[in-house]
Design a protein that fits this description.
It is a single chain. With about 425 residues, the chain is of the alpha+beta class. Helix content is about 50%, strand content about 10%. The protein has helices at about 10-15, 25-40, 60-65, 80-95, 110-115, 120-145, 150-155, 160-170, 175-185, 200-225, 230-235, 245-275, 280-285, 290-300, 335, 370-385; strands at about 40-45, 50-55, 70, 150, 235-240, 240, 305-310, 315-320, 320-325, 330, 390-395, 400, 410, 415-420. The strands form five sheets. It has a five-stranded mixed β-sheet, with helices on both faces. Helix 1 (about 10-15) crosses helix 2, helix 6 (about 120-145) runs antiparallel to helix 8 (about 160-170) and helix 10 (about 200-225) packs across helix 12 (about 245-275). The longest helix is centred in the middle third of the chain and has 32 residues, at about 245-275. About 45% of the residues are buried.
Length: about 425
């Protein structure tokens, strides 16, 4: 990887709190490589944000992930501005804050996670796979209908995983466009093209729209239970009592959003990687048995979840740095997934990479609930696309989403020739 000269360690640290850095792979990975080398647990102070420690090495991220009783998700599970931190704290004190799985620690996390766990186990995934493959074919057919050129992100990648996850929830296709807009607004709050507005109140309005929709869904599933994940959530009981409206809506939000944006980012970023590394595209087409490691390499390469935050319960040490109780740590997954100590030639895209100890799904008790589904979706899509693909090239400059949390490409113009 070519480096841009002159970046200081402090500038590299501040890049982690700059949404535009995540839309520029070269700039981001230059900063992360410098931090891994010079100050792998680095204190970041950036105007508009509360201070935090940036944890950039694979081993240190794993150490924090393993110690889930010493490093908690609450009260600051993801990086947001100091203004939003304050608003979230105020809403939590009032009992009206979003409480998804990423906001929770045990014992609540263990109990709430179990409600949906069966829907993501191998038996359930095998039952869902025919629907996934049907949808993969629909969207490769859609590429064919578009006549050899499209914006792959907007025309294909954002739709296919959304249809899969909303099919699992049991939502009608007539609501899918509404869900797409809301999920893009939620994760695109730092992107001028995708966000609804710039104020915390406008961001909160997106969340309230989610809640209003899912309150109606809960009422419908309680009145008329069905055989889908939405019904399982709406009718779940903990200690004999139904979940409150906020916890139910929060569960829907994390399933609908995390199960969509992360996978669409992987598929679009994975296609870009294949286009930009034609030797690896040829290798994969010649040997379809490489698809499982290729899927994990796409996931490592893209790393759609950029960070989670943890808060230290007690004074401790991470990577040789003294961390005080109450201080926040940012776990930089893109950095861990390019760690030179773990990955041989980490800036090489290698569809046969093995082993591949990537951290894109997290680790430990907070390991991604939908990891198996994500792998099935990515594999199904490329197993449908590659046998029909005769040629493909970029049709313009790819554009990334400005974000500090979840994201990837927002535009990927491509030109291609498909069979059938």
């Amino acid at each position: 990887m070519d480096m841009i000269a002159g970046l200081t360690v402090d500038e590299a640290g501040r890049a982690l709190a700059d949404p535009t850095a995540y839309a520029d792979d070269r700039r981001l990975h230059e900063a992360l490589a410098l931090l891994r080398r010079e100050d792998p647990v680095h204190r970041v102070e950036r105007e508009g944000y509360n201070p935090f420690w940036a944890v950039t090495r694979h081993a240190d991220i794993m150490e924090v992930e393993r110690a889930h009783t010493r490093f908690l998700n609450a009260p600051r599970p993801v990086l947001v501005t100091a203004e939003l931190d304050a608003m979230n704290a105020e809403r939590a004190a009032q009992g009206i804050a979003l409480r998804t799985l990423i906001h929770m620690d045990d014992p609540d996390h263990r109990v709430i996670r179990a409600i949906g766990a069966d829907w993501f186990r191998p038996k359930a995934m095998r039952a869902l796979e025919p629907r996934v493959r049907e949808l993969a074919k629909r969207y490769v057919d859609r590429m064919a209908e578009l006549g050899g050129a499209c914006d792959f992100v907007q025309d294909v990648a954002v739709h296919f995983p959304l249809y899969v996850i909303l099919s699992l929830l049991g939502l009608p296709e007539s609501d899918f466009d509404r869900m797409l807009k809301l999920t893009q607004e939620m994760f695109g709050g730092d992107d001028t093209e995708l966000r609804r507005g710039t104020s915390p109140e406008e961001r909160l309005a997106v969340l309230m729209d989610f809640f209003a929709y899912f309150q109606e869904l809960t009422a419908a599933r309680r009145a008329h239970p069905t055989d889908d994940l939405a019904s399982a959530i709406a009718n779940a009981r903990v200690d004999g009592e139904p979940l409150n409206d906020l916890d139910i809506a929060s569960y829907y939000v994390i399933i609908a959003t995390a199960g969509h944006d992360t996978t669409s980012s992987t598929i679009s970023g994975g296609l870009r990687a294949l286009v930009e590394h034609p030797d690896q595209l040829d290798r994969l087409r010649a040997d379809p048995s490489l698809m499982p490691p290729a899927v994990d390499e796409m996931i490592r390469w893209v790393t759609p979840v950029k960070e989670f935050m943890r808060t230290a319960v007690e004074d401790c040490e991470v990577g040789g740095r003294r961390i005080r109780a109450g201080e926040a740590l940012l776990l930089s997954y893109p950095s861990g997934n390019r760690d030179e100590e773990v990955f041989e030639d980490p800036f090489r895209f290698d569809v046969g990479r093995d082993p591949n100890r990537h951290l894109a799904f997290g680790f430990g008790v907070h390991y991604c609930l939908g990891a198996a589904l994500a792998r099935i979706e990515v594999r199904a899509f490329f197993e449908e696309l590659l046998p029909r693909l005769e040629s493909i090239e970029l049709g313009g400059e790819p554009e990334g989403i400005a974000t500090t949390f979840v994201g990837g490409l927002k535009h990927l113009p491509v030109r291609y020739t498909l069979k059938g």
